[in-house]
Design a protein that fits this description.
single chain; about 260 residues; alpha/beta; Rossmann fold; 2 domains; 3-stranded antiparallel β-sheet
Amino acid sequence: MTAKPTVEAKGLDLTFQTNDGPVDALKGVDLTISKGDFVSFIGPSGCGKTTFLRVIAALENPTGGSITVNGMTPDEARRQRLYGYVFQNAGLYPWRTISGNIKLPLEIMGFSKAERQARVEKVLKLVDLDGFGKKFPWQLSGGMQQRASIARALAFDAEILLMDEPFGALDEIVRDHLNEQLLELWARTGKTIGFVTHSIPEAVYLSTKIVVMSPRPGRITDIIESPLPKERPLNIRDTLPFLEITQRVREGLRAGHAYND
């Protein structure tokens, strides 16, 4: 028996109504994400990358087509806590410790004090922040704060992790390190990950599938299944297969701009 896709979009449209008229944020999007996939969405600003992630998370409602998450509507998936969401900014409350920030969604969900503590300890180890639970956000580097944000999204053990440019504001050295750590985390947990980025090397390095998108209207120009192995040292970026995928992504981005203004 074939397992249901984790995410399946068919002919998905989303049109925003503005004072200047309708804006097609997404148009005719067809995409299947399987359990355990690491899918990166790449494209210029305004191409619908974040909008699509928000549709999965039931933060935006499509105006046409269909989308399911584990065979149910995104809103049903949200109520069943099937996903965690990581934003570009860590969004940690400065008056709460790192443990306190991670516990917040667990408190809202009604987990017991003992269960909250056990889950916090587990996810701090997952993101290599064991021993930093009593620190406050301002005492941690930007990269460590983002790892704490990832830990918070993982705390209730959601099947799907949605990440909207989580490393976009970090310098290249820190970003490379966090890319390595994210791949290790993905390998340990088996989560299904949707990842928005503007960086071609980042998308190619991280993903099992790369979704190339174009603006006006937001649509998919290419879906690239990566042939790279799951274990990826940083120097894989110097190999011919990596460079070939990178070139294909660039070509897809160029094709997406082949429209008339």
